[in-house]
């Protein structure tokens, strides 16, 4: 997933993506060895095959191995809702580069203010030389907060950094060592966020012994609830599990600093929890004096049809991690918002050199302005609701277990059969490859059985319809 980078699932993927990769087509031979001395010669421009050969020589094997790769094209340009490859072919982008380019690829207004800020400021470290764009961004974020209790802003470089920054503030402000998380959540691929999250055992391989202070409860994913349970009952059961098993057998409440929670677990496959559960979790935090950490890195900024996904559930977080779409995909930046209690008094050791880059702050302020000015979250809600109604018809297909979503955050669960609901990752691979071959790029990760649709929130209706038609045709071919 890209936790941090601009969705490199179309190309180099470990710059923030969960898994690298793609699909193979054409005459390129995979697995060619590095040059004898490990230093490839620089070459001039070439055809697509030549670019792929250079790609293989320069990047780690897991980027392009047939087992793990996703990419099948080398991109030469991007604009609006499309990208273009070395052959001149244009593809509909249903990824918005991992929910980063929410205003489309290379939004002109955001690019303009970014370039101007680069000319004016270059780079300044925001701890030592605070600058106007960082103050303006903080004020803009406060204007768009989901709850008035969020009054402070901490800037970071990436979504991973924002998740870690939020956890750092919770732990150091509370003087408690533990964080409660949920199985299936994704918070990044740094060592810390990999341990706090638990998206898959594959990503935790070799790091199993580095458990740290993370505790994990089941995420109440309704589609895969235990037989005989309703969605609400499953949510209640998870809350009981926290009270009886985690607090009763693993850690007393006063040792837990807070709960980190994704209001929609996007990387897991668009898991949408029962609203009653989310409210019950917030009540549990209040009861035990835990900080409620809302991870909005992928779901925030209009993706789910509201500015913040947590607004669907009517609870107020104490900390909120923000990333990806905050700068329109033009510059890397992220942020944490917090209450006076967690950020107003505690002396927390957090930060990184390039956090709060002046140009990134300018880009983020302009992005927030456009989101409100053009009512982008509302547009996401309208387009997403219409798309979901259409996509629900696909549940009649034998291998589509469920279609679900909020706004333009949509998922198609692929199963081997509807009765067992056994995940069908290989079908996911085939559908993804078919889509790309036919000019549409959805979101798919190596090993996943969920195809995700997360286009730019500014995507034209006809372009979205054409992309969905391609996905439907691929599903029917299987």
Descriptive labels:
478 residues; alpha/beta; Aspartate Aminotransferase, domain 1; Aspartate Aminotransferase, domain 2; seven-stranded mixed β-sheet; four-stranded mixed β-sheet; 16 helices; globular; disordered N terminus
What overall geometry do the principal axes of the alpha carbons give?
globular
Low-pLDDT parts are 1-41
Total helices: the number is 16
Helix content: 25-40%
Structural class of the helix and strand makeup?
alpha/beta
Number of domains: 2
**Percentage beta strand:** 5-15%
* Mean of residue pLDDT values: 89
> What do we call the CATH homologous superfamily of the largest domain?
Type I PLP-dependent aspartate aminotransferase-like (Major domain)
Order of helices and strands: HHEEEHHHEHEHHEHEHHEEEHHHEEHEEH
Q: Cα-atom Rg, whole angstroms?
A: 22 Å
Distance between the termini: 24 Å
Strand order of the largest sheet: 4-10-9-8-7-5-6
